[in-house]
Amino acid sequence: MTVPHVPLAANGTGLPRKMTRALPGDGTAPSAGRVTYERQYAALRWTRRVQTLFGVVLFGVLFAGSAYFGKFDPIALIEGAPRLGEYVQKTVPVLRWESLSKDFAFWFYGLPKWLDLLLETVLMAYLATLMGAGGALLLCFFGSRNLAPNEWSYHAARRASEFLRTIPDLVFALIFVFAFGLGPLAGILAIALHSMGANGKLFAEANENIDMKPVEGLRAMGATWVQTMRFAVIPQVLPNYASYVLWRLEINVRSAAIMGFVGAGGIGMELITAVRSLYYEDISAILILVVLTVTCIDIACGKLRHALIGRETLV
Amino acid sequence: MSGSRALPTEARIAALRLRAPRAFGLPLRERMWLGAAWGAFVLLTAYCFWRFDFSPVRLWTGLGDLGLIVGHMFPPSPGDQPAEIFLALLETIAMAFLGTLLAAIVAVPLAFLAAKNTFPFWLPRFAVRRFMDVLRGVDQLIWALIFVRAVGLGPLAGIMAIFISDTGTLSKLFSESIENIEKKQIEGVRAAGAGAIQTLRFGVFPQVSPMFLSSALYMFESNIRSATILGIVGAGGIGFQLSDRIRAHQWEEASFILIVILIAVACLDWASKNLRMRLIGAPS
Questions:
Q1: Is B151 a residue whose pLDDT tops 60?
Q2: Tens of pLDDT along A127-150?
Q3: SS in 3 state form for A171-234?
Q4: In the structure, what pLDDT confidence band is assigned to residue B119 with cuts at 50, 70 and 90?
Q5: Between the CA of residue B248 and those of A170, A228, B86, what are the distances in Å?
């Protein structure tokens, strides 16, 4: 069988021409090695091409399906684009150099009320994080394979934390608003439940990575299950827990900021009112305040987390 | 081995205390600091409970009402139009897919502009990074609220919200993977005589594309979860159906939708996780 000689660089291998030219058998009859090489190369290319084709077809089907079910309409998008620009433009306030402080005062006219609501938002996140961490602490010892007192409680704790973290906190809030009334209480309980599920999983995973020798030691001394958890497990995992809780606080501040969309307290209520009533400049003012608050909390929590991690490696 | 281990004398204890004071408890100053921190913590928490009106009566009546609501949720029922719910679920998945896809496409060039090793100019890189921070800093639901105003109710607003906030996230993730690539491969391609574009294509791209795909898939997973709530502000998907049922107190249908969401999220998570592991494990 003869293999026709094809200059490699011309068929889209992408290999620089210099490298292919240097192959033996150029111009003369191809050597045995060259024949094997060409055959294997062709086979490889064939499978690759089939794979690529399969990928492209699959992607096309997914894309077409999504565009159909998502009612994706490029024309509506193109028509909406200028409206979006207009919208953003309207939220930008008039700021003149000669009356800058006055313009700012006009733009942030609601500052005292907004700052109070921002404080409420941060406090909601704080309390919810605390309650969520407490709940997760109860859940996590049952939910880690090495510590659970029995199989049954392990599965119950795992499923419970899975359920709690899959339901978005906003959905909990939507339901709680009916039970506990409008206001921050519903939002706090909703965020706390979601955090309990999310932290329950993380805490349990931290528990599964501990050194089991202290646990065995305490068990051998006749300590009860609670004593074992308190004196053998908690000292090992406390830095991890603290780091997860701080991280959760960052996330919860964001959540608390949108709880107001369903009437569950915080700055979100003010934001959704501004959007619905077309108070354009209020929208940008509140958004700036929210982004600033979230950024400050992120930086503070990040610093604390790094300090904790640093101490953990030193001890 | 001394058989007699007498109790340490007062002098010995004093000597030990001098040598290792911290073994006998924290010094007064540190103990005061610790006490102050605990005091502040307790005060802050108490203030929160007071401010948010956590009265036992309120909690008790609330829990009673919640019990009634949960009671009404069983048995879950699909209602008159089960097809509507499943179409809304498909709409949610489609929103997450299209939003992530658009974001990934836009994020690739942005990421190359934001990575130190592919874009050496300091000022524009800084600008691109801060721009991405702003996109990420505003919550997806807030973007959805704004887009509902701009392009109207429906899934398009949701797609745009996912697209905008994920452009920020994905370009950050992508630029980090670009900054972590192996230099040797690039040097090798350059040594073979490749130009700038060819270096990117054969030196950088094969290294980062599995990471890109895996990040995008991860965001797709996370977006399916977040897309379920975009409907609450009117941006389409199953969240619209859910909040509609809850607001109309149709609790059996609401619980049915919640179960559908739980199952769908679990299945898609599993599928996407498998795919991601294969991508990272065997980059082809």
A1: yes
A2: 999 999 999 998 888 888 888 888
A3: HHHHHHHHHHCCCHHHHHHHHHHHHHHHHHHHHHHHHHCCCCHHHHHHHHCCCCHHHHHHHHHH
A4: confident
A5: 17, 49, 19
**CB contact residues (below 8 A), chain B span 2-41, against chain A:** none
Round to whole Å and give the CA distance between A175 and A187. Answer: 10
Residue A15 has pLDDT above 60, yes or no: no
pLDDT at A22 over 60: no
Amino acid at A163: F
Residue A222 CA to residue A82 CA, distance in Å, equals 73
CB-CB under 8 Å, A166 with B93: no
Angstroms from B66 CA to nearest CA on chain A: 5
pLDDT digits (tens, 9 = 90+) for A204-252: 888 888 888 988 999 898 888 888 888 888 888 888 888 889 989 999 9
pLDDT digits (tens, 9 = 90+) for B16-63: 888 887 777 777 888 888 899 899 999 999 998 888 888 888 888 888
Establish whether this prediction's ipTM goes over 0.85: no
Query: Quick one: which of A160, A158, A164, A152 has its CA closest to A195?
Result: A164
Cis omega (within 30 of 0) for bond into B109: no
Taking CB atoms and an 8 Å cut-off, how many pairs form between chains A and B?
165
Give the pLDDT of residue A234.
87
Sorted by sequence, the CB contacts under 8 Å of residue A79 that are 6+ apart come out as none
Residue type, A121: T
Q: Which of A 296-315 lie inside 8 A of B, CB atoms?
A: none
Q: What is d(CA B220, CA B227) in angstroms, rounded to the nearest whole number?
A: 10
Give residues with Cβ within 8 angstroms of A285, minimum separation 6: A93, A107, A108, A110, A114
- Its sign, for the CA torsion B180, B162, A290, A111, is positive
Q: Are A283 and A267 in contact (CB under 8 A)?
A: no
**Is the pTM here over 0.90, yes or no?**
no
Who has greater pLDDT, A85 or A271?
Answer: A271
Q: Does any CB of chain B come closer than 8 Å to the CB of residue A97?
A: no
Q: What is the dihedral of CA B11, B15, B17, B19, to 10 degrees?
A: -170
Pick from A217, A237, A238, A239: which is nearest to A228 by CA? A217
**Long-range contacts at B178-184 (CB < 8 A, ≥ 24 apart):** B178/B111, B178/B112, B178/B115, B178/B117, B178/B118, B178/B204, B178/B208, B179/B115, B179/B116, B179/B117, B181/B117, B181/B207, B181/B208, B182/B207
B112 sits in which H/E element? helix B82-114
Cβ atoms within 10 Å of B170's Cβ, excluding its own: 26
Sign of the CA dihedral A255, A260, A266, A267?
A: positive
Cis peptide before B76 (omega within 30 of 0): no
What confidence score (pLDDT) does residue B281 get? 67
Domains present along chain A, CATH in parentheses: 8-69 (no CATH), 114-314 (1.10.3720.10)
In this structure, of B88-97, B242-251, B273-282, the range with the lowest mean pLDDT score is B273-282
Chain B CB within 8 Å of residue A60 CB: no
